[in-house]
């Protein structure tokens, strides 16, 4: 039996028929997660946040701390993904890892937290890119042009439309773009970082400054609190690796490729991100001027302080393309989650969103729904200019809640789980426990206000967003979904419980 037949048969054992084309390899599956993580996108957008919440010492060492604990989460997810490789990913895992009486409720909340987190992270990625592009345009005109909020919104809309079009051209084209993105995400930040380390002009910072300097511009006086707030920068970047799980139905040998795709993406991102942070911290000349730069972004100012305007534009262009690829792959992963959740009838208008285009073999309606919803949060910018940080907090919290729920279910009901090709063995319980504890800490942490005094402008509205998800999902379930949603459904005429009686596919 060839690989594709084996993958289709494995999917059928989980209760679904093969509808999508398996055009992704182990490399492009890994590239999907690497691209959604995109250290270039996250660190470029939140570098100023890191500069005020602890400065270089928190950015450099906090990055390693977050990478270390994130590995526990990704190992826990990879183990489950190997056993249940479906596009639904986390909500499917949760539903199958609990007793039948809890299946619908567990799947419902996991699915909605993952979906809202994906909507928020896509919006945050593309809105950050829009403001970065506006910064570069302003630099092209010698800072004689300043973007208005509606300029940012129009750029944001243009980005989303371009990414939607590319996601609508079929799996073969998308696979090729993902391949290009994989190498771009790897090489672009390395090239810029090494050039900055080697070619920086006199006036750059010392090693002592980069590795020990603490800066606090938050208004809070408690150092520990400020340091903990500073971890958001790294934790926001290290999200989205569930993309490998959502692409399993389009990946060959998914039960092996997808787990290693997640793990490899985090390990590679950890190294590249640390190099990126060190290079840009070394490149700072005047800290206050860099933080309050007229370009709007510290990384732009750092490059401008060390290179000519022309070379700065070249380097920024490399980074902008990486950010665009990040948004592209985020929409891809989001659309597959929409497709899978709708396949199980969990979304309003489900019959529209799980439709597969017969010629292109992709869920085009789901792609454009993802694009539409990713644009809407940007409208908050017209009301509150700090909305971006709230969106990043919301995306991080919602995604990590959805990451922790299946891992927690596996801990509570260990006898239900049947391992796949990738298994943690005797370390599984320890790794899963640390993962759940870490997520519990960051969820509470990132609901707290990062800046003092807390006003209507500086308030962390992520708490409102998370509360809104809980209230919406809870009321929807109690008033309606509990009567018709039974958890992951099937479209292959196979009883989903048979997976626990058939180990031939594991």
UniProtKB/TrEMBL annotation:
The chain crosses the membrane at residues 30-52, 58-78, 115-141, 153-177, 183-200, 260-285, 313-333, 360-381, 387-406, 427-448, 460-479. It comes from the Eukaryota. Keywords: Membrane, Transmembrane, Transmembrane helix, Transport. GO terms for cellular component: membrane. GO terms for molecular function: transmembrane transporter activity. Its main location: membrane. The keyword Repeat does not apply. The keyword Nucleus does not apply. InterPro entries: AA/rel_permease1, Amino_acid_permease_CS. It is found in: Membrane. Pfam families: AA_permease_2. It is a multi-pass membrane protein. GO terms for biological process: amino acid transport. This is Uncharacterized protein. It comes from Adineta ricciae (Rotifer). The lineage of its organism: Eukaryota, Metazoa, Spiralia, Gnathifera, Rotifera.
